Amino acid sequence: MNTQIAVEQEAKSLLEFIEYYEICNKAEDKSPKTVSWYSANLKSFHNYLKSRHLPDTLDKIDIKILRQYVLYLLKKNKYHGHPITPEKAEPVSAATVHGHVRTLRAFFSWLVAEGFIEASPARDLKRPKVCQKVMSTLSDEEIRAILGVLAPLNSSNARNQTIFMLLIDTGLRMSELINLKMDDVHMNE
Mean pLDDT: which of 9-23, 104-118, 150-164 is highest? Predict the structure, then answer.
């Protein structure tokens, strides 16, 4: 990469690259929720830099700044600064911080791949440990009770029973169910 171009790129505001990253993610046909999640996490990082009067150009962001941000997230209260939801007096979850770190690592790796920076400052950024939650499942009795309520007396109940069975049998997420098309269903498999 041309050194002059690299210096010019690195001096651009982080926000410009966040916006371009969003465009690239949309062009790669990533789900709208994924694009929105990446953008929100990166804008949160940008807001952190601005609120602390830290540099927001690529040439000034280093591992130290990234680790300070992770510490800030670990100490931050849930919903702090949220426009609608009131703040709670409990810290954000480790899973939330983990997601922010994954986003930063993906973003800086993308910057390297695109040739905007030589090396990722997030390369050695560690993700906090996340305790795996054991998901409670419905018992056979609970499933029978729900199916009893949804007994197909009419077409609406038949539809609801089909939806319920599909969710139980496949483990689909609600968004996956909503976006399911007939071409996605392979009855013989």
Answer: 104-118
